[in-house]
Amino acid sequence: MIKQGMLFSLLYISVAAAADTGKPHFVAKPSNKSVLGKTASNNVGHKPSQGSAVVSGQGEKVYHYITADGGLAFSDSAPEQGHYQVLLFDCYACKPQSNINWSAIPLFTSQYQQQIAMAAREYRIEAALIRAVIHAESAFKPKAVSKTGAQGLMQLMPATANELGVSDAFHPEQNILAGSRYLAQLLKRFNGDIVLACAAYNAGASRVDQYNGVPPFAETQAYVERVQILLKRYRKA
Predict the structure, then answer these.
(1) Does the predicted model carry a pTM greater than 0.85?
(2) Which one of 8, 59, 177, 179 has the largest count of C-beta atoms within 10 Å of its C-beta?
(3) Is the pLDDT of residue 31 over 90?
């Protein structure tokens, strides 16, 4: 994971390597991504405009773009020319030192109502829980992409999305149904314990089994705590 304050050198990854699916299927390391089409100027000291900037305090800013030879590049500075995306590699709700007031941060109560209601009925889980997890995973950004390749609202890894019949992980309905199905499986595995299910969604079910509870990882503990805060608030919303 890229740590705050680190200086990045350009990291070039081939398209084939970027498509590698040998990582865990569900990884709760979501990130926010700016809209495609931002263009860098020719000025060496160029900084992205306000419209291309991501919310501060949520993660390390990394610029992602395609090089002239077709490779993928990740850097701590924008390219001098061409289009780029801004990625945040930190989990939205995982950063232990986050200064966000999770008890007061605005909620997303109107987005994807139909899709969330459908998933809640299909898998018999609370709509408020689905909404809380989406908020924690991606802050309701349907095009969110993580460092490990997790995609969309509920951060599905490509292999899992494929196994669940998801043809487009960035399609809100497909993503929400698949992520909710997995969340329901975790709830069943942990006898309806929402805390353990959320910990497993973040760190993996095997880690929860290993530690017989929430793993002692600062990010996982922060994630679980914040999902619970969001859940209580969405229940009342």
Answers:
(1) no
(2) 179
(3) no
